[in-house]
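Deliverable D2.4 — example input (structure tokens):
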């Protein structure tokens, strides 16, 4: 097994299915991708595709031929293992060089869509990508101990216990904390359906981070599979009393909740408050799953 960086951008002509499958030409990359089966890969987006840099990590399950094109193949991804980064990590840090050892600033291996990387380079990128932000929206509600902040630009070290990063990435408690921080940050600590922004004396937001596709159904720990919701609204969403349309209209199950209660719980326009950064908007495939599998409308 081996770890790698996969370049995946929105402008790609390949049949990529983010979160599910990575499409690639067999002639150039099959031998490399086959080595990643069972291991973790980091995703990278260049300037032309959106410019997020290194933005997430996921495990590869298997490699399958493309039934429509014998020259292409898919790396099938473990959807439930996907974890987005708390910080977008640049490929190059001025004065320090690249996160990937030996990677040139331009051309050469820099343009390769699949790059095998060492465990050390993998850990360095994970450290920077998952270093917790030091801001009120990411402070745990209960005041429990949280990880110190770090900055991707400075290649900050990671402060959780010293252990292989792939072991840390598999820990549910760590993933839950990271997911919660990311969702609360994306929505500014505000409930996306009620608009309420409640904080305790320490400035901690009382809003909760909800999975659209739940963890029990292999839902990924990515911001696009998350919503910031107040406790009551979170309960209603999980039980299918509320859902969201593809154009972010809040849907209410018929005869499930009386209108007077809804008027107190939801925004008057009944539309989701979207994250300020559009890259964090809920993914329509996740919203569709919720409507088809949870919504009682």
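Example output (designed residues):
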């Amino acid at each position: 097994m081996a770890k790698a960086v996969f370049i995946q951008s929105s402008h790609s002509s390949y049949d990529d299915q983010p979160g599910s499958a990575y499409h690639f030409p067999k002639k150039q990359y099959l031998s490399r991708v086959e080595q990643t089966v069972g291991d973790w890969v980091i995703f990278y987006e260049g300037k032309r595709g959106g410019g997020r840099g290194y933005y997430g990590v996921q495990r590869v399950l298997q490699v399958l031929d493309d039934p429509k094109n014998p020259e292409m193949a898919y790396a099938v991804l473990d959807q439930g293992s996907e974890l987005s980064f708390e910080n977008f990590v640049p490929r190059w840090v001025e004065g320090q060089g690249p996160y990937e050892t030996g990677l040139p600033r331009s051309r050469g291996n820099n343009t390769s869509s699949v790059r095998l990387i060492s465990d050390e380079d993998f850990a360095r990128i994970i450290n920077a990508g998952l270093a917790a932000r030091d801001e009120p929206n990411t402070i745990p509600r209960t005041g429990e101990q949280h990880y110190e902040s770090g900055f991707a630009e400075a290649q900050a070290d990671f402060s959780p216990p010293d252990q292989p990063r792939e072991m840390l990435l598999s820990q549910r408690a760590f993933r839950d904390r990271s997911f919660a921080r990311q969702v609360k940050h994306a929505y500014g600590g505000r409930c996306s359906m009620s608009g309420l922004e409640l904080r305790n004396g320490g400035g901690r937001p009382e809003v909760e981070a909800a999975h659209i596709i739940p963890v029990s159904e292999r839902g990924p720990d990515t911001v696009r599979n998350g919503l910031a919701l107040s406790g009551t609204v979170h309960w209603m969403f999980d039980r299918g009393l509320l859902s969201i349309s593809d154009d972010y209209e809040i849907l209410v199950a018929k005869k499930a909740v009386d209108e007077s209660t809804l008027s107190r719980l939801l925004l008057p326009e009944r539309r989701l408050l979207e994250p300020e950064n559009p890259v964090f908007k809920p993914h329509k495939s996740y919203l569709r799953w919720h409507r088809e599998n949870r919504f009682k409308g």
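Residues 3 and 90 are 18 Å apart (CA to CA).
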